[in-house]
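User: Hi! I have a protein structure encoded as tokens and I'd like to know what sequence might fold into it. I'm fairly new to this, so please keep things simple.
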């Protein structure tokens, strides 16, 4: 079977869902979307607290894991990625966090025209349907992605915030506004107690359009070329190999893990890597290099004087919470993995913050968010916002079914180690403020006996995990920069009819969860593909 469309989009995740909506808004433009996973019907996708199940569910998750490294004490790190409509936006912690303006000004300084903060802010605003307070200079009100405030409070959260404020960190009601720094409650892509994934926000509203064909359980094998022009995609539907042709472009939206693997299997990547897996080299580029991820380390304390989420999800209390959710869309089943944020500096002399911390009135077994502790607990997590450590994603064979080798090289760089160590010490201070003292029944992790820098780093290496923020493996930048894969129009260097539109193109890590920025990238990409003039930059 062979059929043809103007555009073939590989991946119906965050970027693919939004891009599909924008391209199909014009009735004469035909689009085929290939998604390896199933439709997004699993009930745990839509229940906010269901992330604890989707993080380990093979029906909607690729269930990747990293290669062991020194930075993780020889451990493999589970690396969940969404495998369903909406991609990782269907399984993540639904936090909405853009980052700092300096992040994107840095992208522009690397030679990427039109990617400075003033240029991309209109695209952030276009995607967002903010419900709640915020300066409309920065916030969007009419976009498809509904962003709301947390409507559930807990005495531990308020005590924690009061303690942090007492240490000189100001309360910030809108970290997605004029400034990120401070402490407060997270904003989330939730509405009426249900997740607002990219599929729900953008893909499903476009499904009835006659110019759109969405194919689920379509696992891409490789991109097809005539010379160096992309002309189609070969995929497997579970029973048969099929081909779909692209009259204008193939657009790769597979994410920071799958996009480099697809390119490598298609003959685009480092020559040595392709030779090792037996794939003929079509075009040599540093595909799969520049991998970065946030590496959170979670510190916990036992709790007294109040209950925590840990107890509310067991026995009769869980029955009550289920009923509260079923009839009112309220309670702990509406929660994200964390509730309170801190954006701050490891060194007061820094111009921009370099630490993100989170607080949750719950604790997880061994620092992993897939299973709660059985005793009352609270957690402070900390990570460096802009890691210097670079890793790789590499196909291990020419077979599309084989999972790629993922090596983030967590905290390999000396700077990353120093910033993380400073952050751990600061997080420990936050757990032991006078305001939190009446609830703190003793530090559980790492424990009061762990004090020296070497002991704290050993703890970090032994318990740290992914923040699910992988990016950078198809780096954007001018062709003169040998570390880049796509130009500032997201076209693959040296190729025709081929773009990459997802978190893999990020040149450097934003100081944030990556979903909001991924949607922004897709929004801007739609204008680039359709030849539309960009919106006017916003003067700040």
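Assistant: Happy to help. Inverse folding works backwards from shape to sequence: for each of the 540 positions I chose a residue that suits the local structure. Here it is:
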């Amino acid at each position: 079977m062979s059929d043809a469309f103007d555009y073939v989009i590989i991946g119906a995740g965050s970027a693919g869902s939004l891009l599909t909506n924008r391209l199909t808004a014009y009735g004469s433009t035909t689009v085929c979307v290939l998604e390896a996973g199933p439709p997004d019907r699993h009930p745990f996708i839509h229940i906010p607290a269901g992330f604890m199940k989707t993080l380990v569910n093979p029906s909607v998750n690729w269930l990747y894991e990293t290669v062991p490294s020194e930075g993780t004490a020889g451990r493999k790190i589970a690396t969940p990625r969404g495998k369903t409509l909406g991609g990782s936006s269907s399984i993540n912690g639904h936090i909405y966090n853009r980052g700092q303006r300096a992040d994107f000004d840095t992208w522009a300084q690397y030679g990427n025209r039109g990617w400075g903060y003033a240029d991309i802010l209109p695209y952030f605003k276009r995607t967002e349907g903010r419900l709640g307070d915020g300066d409309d200079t920065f916030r969007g009100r009419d976009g498809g992605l509904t962003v709301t405030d947390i409507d559930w409070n807990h005495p531990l959260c308020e005590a924690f915030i009061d303690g942090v404020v007492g240490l000189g960190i100001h309360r910030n009601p809108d970290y997605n506004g004029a400034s990120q720094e401070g402490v407060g409650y997270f904003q989330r892509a939730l509405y009426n107690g249900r997740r607002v994934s990219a599929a729900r926000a953008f893909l499903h509203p476009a499904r009835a359009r006659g110019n759109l064909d969405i194919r689920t359980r379509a696992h891409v094998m490789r991109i097809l070329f005539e010379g160096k022009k992309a002309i189609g995609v070969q995929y497997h539907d579970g029973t048969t190999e099929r081909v779909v042709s692209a009259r204008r472009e193939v657009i790769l939206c597979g994410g920071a893990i799958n996009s480099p693997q697809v390119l490598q299997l298609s003959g685009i990547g480092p020559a040595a890597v392709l030779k090792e897996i037996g794939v003929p080299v079509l075009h040599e580029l540093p595909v799969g290099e520049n991998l970065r991820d946030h590496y959170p380390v979670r510190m916990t304390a036992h709790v007294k004087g109040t209950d925590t989420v840990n107890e509310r999800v067991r026995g009769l209390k869980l029955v009550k919470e289920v009923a509260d959710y079923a009839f009112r869309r309220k309670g702990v089943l509406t929660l994200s993995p964390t509730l309170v944020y801190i954006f701050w500096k490891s060194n007061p002399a820094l111009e921009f913050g370099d630490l993100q911390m989170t607080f949750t009135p719950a604790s997880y077994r061994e620092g992993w968010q897939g299973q709660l502790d059985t005793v009352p607990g609270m957690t402070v997590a900390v990570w460096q916002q802009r890691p210097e450590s670079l890793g790789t994603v590499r196909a291990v064979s020419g077979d599309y079914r084989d999972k790629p080798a993922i090596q983030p090289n967590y905290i390999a760089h000396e700077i990353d180690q120093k910033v993380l160590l400073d952050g751990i010490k600061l997080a420990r201070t936050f757990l032991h403020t006078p305001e939190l003292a009446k609830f703190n029944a003793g530090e559980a992790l790492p424990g009061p006996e762990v004090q020296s820098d070497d002991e704290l780093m050993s703890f970090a290496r032994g318990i740290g995990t992914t923040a699910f923020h992988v990016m950078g493996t198809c780096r954007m930048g001018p062709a003169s920069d040998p570390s880049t894969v796509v130009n500032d129009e997201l076209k693959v260097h040296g190729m025709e009819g081929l773009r990459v539109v997802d978190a893999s193109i990020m040149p450097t890590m934003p100081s944030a969860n990556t979903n909001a920025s991924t949607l922004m990238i897709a929004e801007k990409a739609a204008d680039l593909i359709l030849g539309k003039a960009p919106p006017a930059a916003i003067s700040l």
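A useful reference point when you look it over: The longest helix spans residues 414-431. Feel free to ask if any position seems puzzling.
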